[in-house]
Amino acid sequence: MNSENTGIFFNSELQKEIKDKFYYVDHDNLGRKRLFFENSGGSFRLKSAVEAKSRYEEIPDCPERIHDTALMLQKVKEDGIRDIMQVIFGAKTGSLVTELTASQVMFQITQAIVENVPGTNVVTTSIEHPSAYDSAKYYAEKTGKELRVAMANPNTGGIDTDEIIRHIDENTCLLSVISASNISGNIIDMEEVVREARKIKPDLYIISDAVQHMPHAVLEVEKFQLDGINFAPYKAFGVRGCGYGYISDRVAKLPHHKLFAKPENEWELGTFPHPNFAAISAVVDYVCWIGEHFTDSKDRRHLYVAGMTHIHLHERALLQRMLEGTKDVPGLRHIKGVNVLLDSQELINRDLISAISLEGLGYTEAVAQYYKRGVTVYERVNTSLYSKRIIESLGLDGAIRVSPLHCHDASDIDEFLKITSHLVKDLSKQILV
Questions:
Q1: Residues 194, 186: contact at Cβ < 8 Å?
Q2: Which stretches of 9-67 are DSSP H helices?
Q3: Cβ contact 430:424 at 8 Å
Q4: Model-level pTM greater than 0.90?
Q5: HSE of 14 in the Cβ direction (CA atoms, 13 Å)?
Q6: CATH number for the domain whose boundaries are 51-285
Q7: No. of H helices and E strands in the chain?
Q8: What are the residue ranges spanned by the domains of the chain?
Q9: What CATH architecture is 3-45+311-432?
Q10: 105-137 pLDDT per residue, tens
Protein backbone atom coordinates (compact mmCIF):
# COMPACT_ATOMS: atom_id res chain seq x y z
CA MET A 1 0.00 0.00 0.00
CA ASN A 2 1.22 3.51 -0.73
CA SER A 3 1.47 6.32 1.79
CA GLU A 4 -1.64 7.98 0.38
CA ASN A 5 -3.70 5.01 1.55
CA THR A 6 -1.81 4.29 4.76
CA GLY A 7 -1.36 7.90 5.88
CA ILE A 8 1.56 9.86 7.29
CA PHE A 9 2.17 10.42 11.01
CA PHE A 10 3.03 13.85 12.38
CA ASN A 11 6.65 13.99 13.52
CA SER A 12 7.12 13.32 17.23
CA GLU A 13 7.89 16.93 18.15
CA LEU A 14 4.79 18.31 16.45
CA GLN A 15 2.69 15.46 17.84
CA LYS A 16 3.76 16.33 21.39
CA GLU A 17 2.85 19.99 20.85
CA ILE A 18 -0.53 19.02 19.40
CA LYS A 19 -1.43 16.75 22.31
CA ASP A 20 -0.51 19.46 24.79
CA LYS A 21 -3.02 21.87 23.22
CA PHE A 22 -5.99 19.74 24.35
CA TYR A 23 -7.50 19.01 27.75
CA TYR A 24 -7.63 15.48 29.20
CA VAL A 25 -6.03 13.51 26.37
CA ASP A 26 -4.14 11.05 28.59
CA HIS A 27 -6.18 11.39 31.79
CA ASP A 28 -9.82 12.10 32.57
CA ASN A 29 -11.08 15.08 34.57
CA LEU A 30 -10.54 13.13 37.83
CA GLY A 31 -6.89 12.49 37.03
CA ARG A 32 -7.33 8.82 36.07
CA LYS A 33 -5.27 7.48 33.18
CA ARG A 34 -7.56 6.97 30.23
CA LEU A 35 -7.76 6.47 26.46
CA PHE A 36 -10.70 8.52 25.21
CA PHE A 37 -11.61 6.85 21.92
CA GLU A 38 -15.13 8.31 21.77
CA ASN A 39 -14.44 11.48 19.84
CA SER A 40 -17.37 10.84 17.48
CA GLY A 41 -19.63 11.63 20.42
CA GLY A 42 -17.84 14.89 21.17
CA SER A 43 -14.18 15.65 20.64
CA PHE A 44 -11.42 16.72 23.00
CA ARG A 45 -11.60 20.40 23.91
CA LEU A 46 -8.93 22.69 22.54
CA LYS A 47 -7.55 24.69 25.45
CA SER A 48 -7.43 27.94 23.50
CA ALA A 49 -11.09 27.57 22.43
CA VAL A 50 -12.30 27.07 26.00
CA GLU A 51 -10.13 29.95 27.20
CA ALA A 52 -11.37 32.28 24.44
CA LYS A 53 -15.01 31.56 25.27
CA SER A 54 -14.37 32.10 28.98
CA ARG A 55 -12.49 35.34 28.40
CA TYR A 56 -15.25 36.94 26.37
CA GLU A 57 -18.05 35.58 28.58
CA GLU A 58 -16.71 37.82 31.34
CA ILE A 59 -17.52 40.99 29.40
CA PRO A 60 -21.08 42.31 30.07
CA ASP A 61 -21.21 44.87 27.26
CA CYS A 62 -23.72 44.57 24.45
CA PRO A 63 -21.94 44.35 21.08
CA GLU A 64 -24.75 46.31 19.42
CA ARG A 65 -23.38 49.64 20.69
CA ILE A 66 -20.83 52.19 19.38
CA HIS A 67 -18.25 52.45 22.20
CA ASP A 68 -14.81 50.84 21.97
CA THR A 69 -15.64 47.63 23.87
CA ALA A 70 -18.75 47.05 21.78
CA LEU A 71 -16.78 47.62 18.58
CA MET A 72 -14.17 45.13 19.78
CA LEU A 73 -16.88 42.53 20.42
CA GLN A 74 -18.38 43.20 17.00
CA LYS A 75 -15.00 42.48 15.43
CA VAL A 76 -14.73 39.20 17.37
CA LYS A 77 -18.04 38.15 15.89
CA GLU A 78 -17.20 39.36 12.38
CA ASP A 79 -13.89 37.48 12.49
CA GLY A 80 -15.69 34.35 13.69
CA ILE A 81 -18.26 34.53 10.90
CA ARG A 82 -15.49 35.04 8.34
CA ASP A 83 -13.62 32.03 9.75
CA ILE A 84 -16.71 29.83 9.54
CA MET A 85 -17.87 30.90 6.09
CA GLN A 86 -14.66 31.51 4.18
CA VAL A 87 -12.12 29.34 6.01
CA ILE A 88 -14.05 26.31 7.28
CA PHE A 89 -16.76 26.10 4.61
CA GLY A 90 -14.67 27.57 1.78
CA ALA A 91 -17.61 29.78 0.76
CA LYS A 92 -17.34 33.05 -1.12
CA THR A 93 -21.10 33.65 -1.13
CA GLY A 94 -24.12 32.47 0.84
CA SER A 95 -25.26 33.06 4.41
CA LEU A 96 -24.56 31.70 7.88
CA VAL A 97 -27.16 29.86 9.95
CA THR A 98 -26.63 29.96 13.71
CA GLU A 99 -28.45 27.83 16.27
CA LEU A 100 -27.84 26.22 19.65
CA THR A 101 -27.16 22.88 17.94
CA ALA A 102 -26.26 21.55 14.51
CA SER A 103 -29.49 19.52 14.61
CA GLN A 104 -31.52 22.72 14.82
CA VAL A 105 -29.55 24.09 11.88
CA MET A 106 -30.46 21.03 9.82
CA PHE A 107 -34.16 21.35 10.66
CA GLN A 108 -34.16 25.05 9.71
CA ILE A 109 -32.49 24.47 6.34
CA THR A 110 -34.65 21.46 5.49
CA GLN A 111 -37.85 23.31 6.41
CA ALA A 112 -37.07 26.29 4.20
CA ILE A 113 -36.38 24.12 1.16
CA VAL A 114 -39.11 21.49 1.47
CA GLU A 115 -41.86 24.00 2.33
CA ASN A 116 -40.98 26.45 -0.43
CA VAL A 117 -39.41 24.60 -3.36
CA PRO A 118 -41.79 22.92 -5.85
CA GLY A 119 -41.62 19.14 -6.11
CA THR A 120 -43.34 15.94 -5.11
CA ASN A 121 -40.55 14.05 -3.34
CA VAL A 122 -37.59 14.37 -0.96
CA VAL A 123 -34.57 12.06 -1.16
CA THR A 124 -32.30 11.13 1.74
CA THR A 125 -30.37 8.04 2.91
CA SER A 126 -30.72 5.30 5.50
CA ILE A 127 -27.51 6.26 7.34
CA GLU A 128 -28.41 9.87 8.09
CA HIS A 129 -28.20 11.22 11.62
CA PRO A 130 -31.74 11.58 13.01
CA SER A 131 -31.58 15.36 12.67
CA ALA A 132 -31.20 15.06 8.89
CA TYR A 133 -33.44 12.02 8.37
CA ASP A 134 -36.20 13.14 10.72
CA SER A 135 -36.28 16.69 9.38
CA ALA A 136 -36.59 15.34 5.83
CA LYS A 137 -39.35 12.96 6.93
CA TYR A 138 -41.19 15.56 9.03
CA TYR A 139 -41.35 18.26 6.35
CA ALA A 140 -42.03 15.77 3.56
CA GLU A 141 -45.05 14.50 5.49
CA LYS A 142 -46.13 18.03 6.42
CA THR A 143 -46.12 19.12 2.77
CA GLY A 144 -47.54 15.89 1.35
CA LYS A 145 -44.32 14.92 -0.44
CA GLU A 146 -42.97 11.38 -0.82
CA LEU A 147 -39.88 10.50 1.21
CA ARG A 148 -37.45 8.34 -0.76
CA VAL A 149 -34.61 6.61 1.10
CA ALA A 150 -31.40 5.40 -0.54
CA MET A 151 -30.17 2.29 1.25
CA ALA A 152 -26.69 1.70 2.66
CA ASN A 153 -24.02 -0.54 1.24
CA PRO A 154 -23.61 -3.14 4.03
CA ASN A 155 -20.06 -3.92 2.92
CA THR A 156 -18.66 -0.40 3.22
CA GLY A 157 -21.09 1.22 5.61
CA GLY A 158 -21.53 4.06 3.14
CA ILE A 159 -23.96 4.93 0.34
CA ASP A 160 -23.18 4.23 -3.31
CA THR A 161 -23.77 7.12 -5.69
CA ASP A 162 -25.84 4.95 -8.05
CA GLU A 163 -28.17 4.02 -5.19
CA ILE A 164 -28.77 7.70 -4.42
CA ILE A 165 -29.23 8.74 -8.03
CA ARG A 166 -31.86 6.11 -8.83
CA HIS A 167 -34.24 7.81 -6.36
CA ILE A 168 -33.98 11.25 -7.98
CA ASP A 169 -36.24 12.58 -10.74
CA GLU A 170 -37.37 15.95 -12.09
CA ASN A 171 -39.86 16.25 -9.21
CA THR A 172 -37.30 15.91 -6.40
CA CYS A 173 -37.19 19.15 -4.39
CA LEU A 174 -34.42 18.20 -1.95
CA LEU A 175 -31.53 15.74 -1.74
CA SER A 176 -30.03 15.39 1.75
CA VAL A 177 -26.90 13.20 2.06
CA ILE A 178 -24.53 12.83 5.01
CA SER A 179 -20.87 13.65 4.29
CA ALA A 180 -19.50 10.60 6.14
CA SER A 181 -20.97 7.71 8.10
CA ASN A 182 -20.89 8.12 11.88
CA ILE A 183 -20.67 4.33 12.26
CA SER A 184 -18.08 3.22 9.71
CA GLY A 185 -16.32 6.49 8.88
CA ASN A 186 -16.99 5.86 5.19
CA ILE A 187 -16.71 9.16 3.30
CA ILE A 188 -19.42 9.89 0.74
CA ASP A 189 -18.16 11.28 -2.56
CA MET A 190 -20.31 14.39 -2.41
CA GLU A 191 -18.72 15.95 -5.50
CA GLU A 192 -19.76 12.92 -7.55
CA VAL A 193 -23.20 12.77 -5.92
CA VAL A 194 -23.90 16.43 -6.72
CA ARG A 195 -22.60 16.13 -10.28
CA GLU A 196 -24.68 13.06 -11.08
CA ALA A 197 -27.81 14.32 -9.30
CA ARG A 198 -27.82 17.58 -11.23
CA LYS A 199 -27.57 15.70 -14.51
CA ILE A 200 -31.11 14.58 -13.71
CA LYS A 201 -32.33 17.89 -12.27
CA PRO A 202 -29.95 20.83 -12.85
CA ASP A 203 -31.54 23.10 -10.22
CA LEU A 204 -31.88 20.43 -7.52
CA TYR A 205 -31.35 21.66 -3.95
CA ILE A 206 -28.66 19.53 -2.24
CA ILE A 207 -27.58 19.67 1.41
CA SER A 208 -25.24 17.62 3.58
CA ASP A 209 -24.82 16.85 7.27
CA ALA A 210 -21.07 17.33 7.91
CA VAL A 211 -21.12 17.08 11.71
CA GLN A 212 -19.25 13.77 11.66
CA HIS A 213 -16.89 14.58 8.80
CA MET A 214 -15.84 18.16 9.51
CA PRO A 215 -13.32 17.40 12.35
CA HIS A 216 -11.41 15.08 10.02
CA ALA A 217 -11.24 16.72 6.60
CA VAL A 218 -11.68 19.83 4.47
CA LEU A 219 -15.19 21.04 3.56
CA GLU A 220 -15.72 22.42 0.02
CA VAL A 221 -19.16 23.98 -0.35
CA GLU A 222 -18.26 26.14 -3.37
CA LYS A 223 -16.37 23.37 -5.16
CA PHE A 224 -19.14 20.83 -4.55
CA GLN A 225 -21.91 23.42 -5.23
CA LEU A 226 -23.88 22.53 -2.11
CA ASP A 227 -26.94 24.47 -0.99
CA GLY A 228 -26.50 23.73 2.69
CA ILE A 229 -24.16 22.08 5.17
CA ASN A 230 -23.77 22.08 8.95
CA PHE A 231 -21.29 21.28 11.71
CA ALA A 232 -21.13 21.16 15.51
CA PRO A 233 -18.11 22.82 17.19
CA TYR A 234 -18.25 20.46 20.17
CA LYS A 235 -17.36 17.63 17.80
CA ALA A 236 -14.57 19.68 16.24
CA PHE A 237 -12.29 20.65 19.17
CA GLY A 238 -14.60 23.53 20.14
CA VAL A 239 -17.34 24.30 22.66
CA ARG A 240 -20.94 23.21 23.19
CA GLY A 241 -23.97 25.45 22.87
CA CYS A 242 -23.68 26.38 19.20
CA GLY A 243 -24.27 24.89 15.75
CA TYR A 244 -23.42 26.48 12.43
CA GLY A 245 -24.56 26.03 8.87
CA TYR A 246 -23.84 27.39 5.40
CA ILE A 247 -26.67 28.07 2.94
CA SER A 248 -26.42 29.15 -0.68
CA ASP A 249 -27.81 32.50 -1.79
CA ARG A 250 -30.91 30.89 -3.23
CA VAL A 251 -31.67 29.08 0.03
CA ALA A 252 -30.96 32.22 2.06
CA LYS A 253 -33.73 34.07 0.21
CA LEU A 254 -36.39 31.42 0.84
CA PRO A 255 -39.04 32.27 3.49
CA HIS A 256 -37.67 31.58 6.97
CA HIS A 257 -37.87 32.83 10.54
CA LYS A 258 -36.48 36.38 10.67
CA LEU A 259 -37.15 39.89 11.87
CA PHE A 260 -38.96 41.84 9.14
CA ALA A 261 -36.50 44.73 9.31
CA LYS A 262 -33.52 42.46 8.62
CA PRO A 263 -32.21 41.74 5.08
CA GLU A 264 -33.94 38.88 3.25
CA ASN A 265 -30.84 36.66 3.47
CA GLU A 266 -30.37 37.16 7.23
CA TRP A 267 -30.80 33.94 9.22
CA GLU A 268 -29.55 35.07 12.62
CA LEU A 269 -32.56 35.50 14.90
CA GLY A 270 -31.41 37.56 17.85
CA THR A 271 -27.80 38.27 18.75
CA PHE A 272 -25.70 35.13 18.85
CA PRO A 273 -22.88 35.25 21.45
CA HIS A 274 -19.50 36.62 20.52
CA PRO A 275 -17.74 34.19 22.95
CA ASN A 276 -18.80 31.28 20.72
CA PHE A 277 -17.40 33.03 17.66
CA ALA A 278 -14.17 33.67 19.56
CA ALA A 279 -13.98 29.96 20.35
CA ILE A 280 -14.41 28.88 16.73
CA SER A 281 -11.76 31.37 15.63
CA ALA A 282 -9.43 29.75 18.16
CA VAL A 283 -10.12 26.38 16.50
CA VAL A 284 -9.29 27.85 13.10
CA ASP A 285 -6.12 29.44 14.55
CA TYR A 286 -5.07 26.01 15.77
CA VAL A 287 -5.64 24.24 12.45
CA CYS A 288 -3.81 27.07 10.64
CA TRP A 289 -0.91 26.65 13.11
CA ILE A 290 -0.63 23.03 12.00
CA GLY A 291 -0.84 24.20 8.39
CA GLU A 292 2.14 26.52 8.93
CA HIS A 293 4.31 23.42 9.32
CA PHE A 294 3.46 22.31 5.78
CA THR A 295 3.02 25.44 3.66
CA ASP A 296 4.54 28.91 3.34
CA SER A 297 1.20 30.44 2.38
CA LYS A 298 -0.12 33.29 4.51
CA ASP A 299 -3.69 32.91 3.26
CA ARG A 300 -5.90 31.73 6.13
CA ARG A 301 -7.99 29.33 4.02
CA HIS A 302 -4.84 27.81 2.47
CA LEU A 303 -3.31 27.35 5.92
CA TYR A 304 -6.51 25.75 7.21
CA VAL A 305 -6.70 23.38 4.23
CA ALA A 306 -3.06 22.37 4.74
CA GLY A 307 -3.70 21.78 8.44
CA MET A 308 -6.84 19.70 7.88
CA THR A 309 -5.17 17.74 5.07
CA HIS A 310 -2.34 16.68 7.37
CA ILE A 311 -4.74 15.98 10.24
CA HIS A 312 -6.51 13.60 7.84
CA LEU A 313 -3.22 11.99 6.79
CA HIS A 314 -2.17 11.49 10.42
CA GLU A 315 -5.57 10.02 11.29
CA ARG A 316 -5.33 7.67 8.33
CA ALA A 317 -1.99 6.44 9.68
CA LEU A 318 -3.62 5.92 13.08
CA LEU A 319 -6.45 3.97 11.43
CA GLN A 320 -3.98 1.83 9.48
CA ARG A 321 -2.10 1.02 12.68
CA MET A 322 -5.31 0.26 14.57
CA LEU A 323 -6.43 -2.17 11.90
CA GLU A 324 -3.11 -3.80 10.98
CA GLY A 325 -0.98 -3.26 14.09
CA THR A 326 2.76 -3.97 14.03
CA LYS A 327 4.94 -7.09 14.22
CA ASP A 328 4.83 -6.76 18.01
CA VAL A 329 1.22 -5.65 18.50
CA PRO A 330 -1.50 -7.24 16.34
CA GLY A 331 -4.14 -4.94 14.90
CA LEU A 332 -7.90 -5.35 15.18
CA ARG A 333 -7.99 -7.34 11.95
CA HIS A 334 -5.60 -9.89 13.47
CA ILE A 335 -6.86 -10.31 17.05
CA LYS A 336 -8.79 -13.55 17.48
CA GLY A 337 -12.20 -12.81 18.94
CA VAL A 338 -12.45 -9.36 17.35
CA ASN A 339 -14.64 -8.75 14.31
CA VAL A 340 -13.97 -5.61 12.31
CA LEU A 341 -17.31 -4.56 10.86
CA LEU A 342 -17.92 -2.56 7.68
CA ASP A 343 -14.21 -2.84 6.90
CA SER A 344 -12.47 -1.91 3.67
CA GLN A 345 -8.85 -2.02 2.54
CA GLU A 346 -9.05 1.40 0.93
CA LEU A 347 -8.55 3.81 3.83
CA ILE A 348 -8.40 6.90 1.67
CA ASN A 349 -12.21 7.05 1.74
CA ARG A 350 -12.55 6.69 5.52
CA ASP A 351 -12.44 8.95 8.56
CA LEU A 352 -10.84 7.76 11.79
CA ILE A 353 -13.61 5.43 12.98
CA SER A 354 -13.70 1.65 13.29
CA ALA A 355 -16.79 -0.42 14.09
CA ILE A 356 -16.04 -3.69 15.87
CA SER A 357 -17.65 -6.48 17.87
CA LEU A 358 -16.17 -8.89 20.41
CA GLU A 359 -17.18 -12.54 20.15
CA GLY A 360 -19.23 -13.74 23.11
CA LEU A 361 -19.75 -10.27 24.56
CA GLY A 362 -22.66 -7.88 24.03
CA TYR A 363 -21.93 -4.37 22.82
CA THR A 364 -22.97 -2.57 26.00
CA GLU A 365 -21.07 -5.00 28.22
CA ALA A 366 -18.01 -4.72 25.99
CA VAL A 367 -18.05 -0.93 26.38
CA ALA A 368 -18.30 -1.39 30.16
CA GLN A 369 -15.37 -3.83 30.13
CA TYR A 370 -13.28 -1.37 28.12
CA TYR A 371 -14.12 1.38 30.60
CA LYS A 372 -12.92 -0.77 33.50
CA ARG A 373 -9.62 -1.05 31.67
CA GLY A 374 -9.26 2.69 31.14
CA VAL A 375 -10.71 2.99 27.63
CA THR A 376 -13.81 4.98 26.66
CA VAL A 377 -15.60 3.79 23.51
CA TYR A 378 -19.30 3.70 22.64
CA GLU A 379 -21.89 1.20 21.50
CA ARG A 380 -24.27 1.94 18.64
CA VAL A 381 -27.14 -0.56 18.97
CA ASN A 382 -30.55 -1.15 17.41
CA THR A 383 -32.34 -0.40 20.68
CA SER A 384 -31.16 3.23 20.53
CA LEU A 385 -33.38 5.88 18.95
CA TYR A 386 -30.24 7.44 17.47
CA SER A 387 -28.88 4.20 16.02
CA LYS A 388 -31.71 1.75 15.21
CA ARG A 389 -32.44 2.80 11.63
CA ILE A 390 -28.77 3.24 10.73
CA ILE A 391 -27.56 0.01 12.32
CA GLU A 392 -30.32 -2.14 10.83
CA SER A 393 -29.83 -0.63 7.37
CA LEU A 394 -26.25 -1.89 7.56
CA GLY A 395 -27.42 -5.41 8.35
CA LEU A 396 -26.21 -5.25 11.94
CA ASP A 397 -27.78 -5.31 15.39
CA GLY A 398 -25.02 -3.18 16.84
CA ALA A 399 -21.36 -2.18 16.87
CA ILE A 400 -18.70 -0.85 19.20
CA ARG A 401 -17.58 2.46 17.73
CA VAL A 402 -13.89 3.23 18.23
CA SER A 403 -13.04 6.84 17.38
CA PRO A 404 -9.67 8.33 18.36
CA LEU A 405 -8.59 11.83 17.27
CA HIS A 406 -5.52 13.32 15.58
CA CYS A 407 -4.02 14.35 18.93
CA HIS A 408 -3.51 10.64 19.64
CA ASP A 409 -0.25 9.02 18.61
CA ALA A 410 0.89 5.53 17.63
CA SER A 411 1.59 4.56 21.24
CA ASP A 412 -2.03 5.33 22.16
CA ILE A 413 -3.22 3.01 19.41
CA ASP A 414 -0.80 0.28 20.54
CA GLU A 415 -2.06 0.56 24.11
CA PHE A 416 -5.65 0.19 22.92
CA LEU A 417 -4.73 -2.88 20.90
CA LYS A 418 -2.97 -4.47 23.88
CA ILE A 419 -6.00 -3.81 26.10
CA THR A 420 -8.28 -5.30 23.43
CA SER A 421 -6.11 -8.44 23.18
CA HIS A 422 -6.16 -8.90 26.96
CA LEU A 423 -9.92 -8.29 27.08
CA VAL A 424 -10.75 -11.00 24.54
CA LYS A 425 -8.27 -13.42 26.16
CA ASP A 426 -9.94 -12.86 29.53
CA LEU A 427 -13.28 -13.44 27.86
CA SER A 428 -12.16 -16.71 26.24
CA LYS A 429 -10.89 -17.99 29.60
CA GLN A 430 -14.27 -17.24 31.19
CA ILE A 431 -16.05 -19.09 28.38
CA LEU A 432 -13.79 -22.13 28.85
CA VAL A 433 -14.45 -22.16 32.58
A1: no
A2: 12-20, 47-57
A3: no
A4: yes
A5: 17
A6: 3.40.640.10
A7: 15, 13
A8: 3-45+311-432, 51-285
A9: Alpha-Beta Complex (3.90)
A10: 999 999 999 999 999 999 999 999 999 999 999
